Amino acid sequence: METPSSEVLKSVEKEISKLLEPFDSMEAVDKFLEEESLKKDPITRFLAYLLKTQVISIDQKKNAKQLVDLIPEYIKTTKEYFGEDFESPLLKIAKRDRPTVEADIKRSYFLFVNSCKHYDVKDYKKYPDGKTIPSRALATLAISDDKLSYTQGYDRYFFISYALSLKFCEKVGLDFIFAEALAYYLTKPLIINASFNDLLENPGTYEGFSLLDEQIKKYCPNTYKVLSKGHLSAFNYAMRWRLLFFSDEHEIDGALLIWDYFLLHMDDTDQFFGYIGAAHVHQVEVDDDFTAVEKLQKFRDWDECKIIQDTKLMAAGKRLRSRNSGRRIFMLVSIIVLLSAAAYVYTKRFDIVSKF
């Protein structure tokens, strides 16, 4: 990987400046993230994430160049870290971690492929086999900070960031090889914000699980009774939700809508997790403690926009619509229509009979 020429970087910088124009303040970034839509532009979202995580500043006189400068910075760093092992980066991390990284990348590669297909990333099949680039980025994380030595789940953050970065590079005219650098700089703050180490070291005392249990008791009392009967708490089913910010539970657009709101709540992640976790539970029918965990972990028929709406209502202490209220309203309307039709037919028959 060679640093692009100064002419290429200058040209790209101008294009990036145009794309950053709507984000003239952090309020503008927040407004974009707050949109309850599954159809957000991935390029705009990528820039919003870089701004919100402070990878680049909100200063429009500087941020386009800051973004471009990430590329030579990453190339320099990785060449220093890996040297002759640039194409075999896992040789530079702890031997015990190598099989786990390789297995996770192989297992999660489909996530990257599906994301590329969804966002119409051109010729994604021509990209490397899905091993070297994520391996190098994840190894760079581990070498850059002992606290970021590989933990299962890091691969999901990188692959989603990488898909967004590839789409961004297509837009601004950068060769796909440089998407690795930009994806790395987005992945790092996302993982840091997820607080993997703190959570895994003391999962039983994690406040977010307690807050989630409290919200379920308040907003999903029947589910809470079922879970309590089986001595089940959020700890038993919600660890993956919290570590990956629900990225394994949703298709890419739904997952990123959830991520939008986690980024908006980086200062109160634990409390926010309690609300949004309960909003997920509210959409699942749990009727016995034997299958409760399986149902909660395997459910996929989510209404993501309603999850966000319910999360906001919970945070405000307001009541939610009943889980099946929409269905009941539909059934009630259907019954009324059928009764009206029956009454109409009966009246017509009565009129015909009366004529005889």
UniProtKB/TrEMBL annotation:
Gene Ontology molecular function, alphabetical: GTPase activator activity
Source species, domain of life: Eukaryota
Alphabetized Gene3D superfamilies for the sequence: Ypt/Rab-GAP domain of gyp1p, domain 3 (1.10.472.80)
InterPro entries the record matches: Rab-GAP-TBC_dom, Rab-GAP_TBC_sf
Native source organism of the sequence: Trichomonas vaginalis (strain ATCC PRA-98 / G3)
Cross-referenced Pfam families: RabGAP-TBC (PF00566)
Spans through the membrane: 329-347
Rab-GAP TBC domain sequence ranges: 1-266
Listed PROSITE patterns: TBC_RABGAP
Keywords: Membrane, Transmembrane, Transmembrane helix
Record protein name field: Rab-GAP TBC domain-containing protein
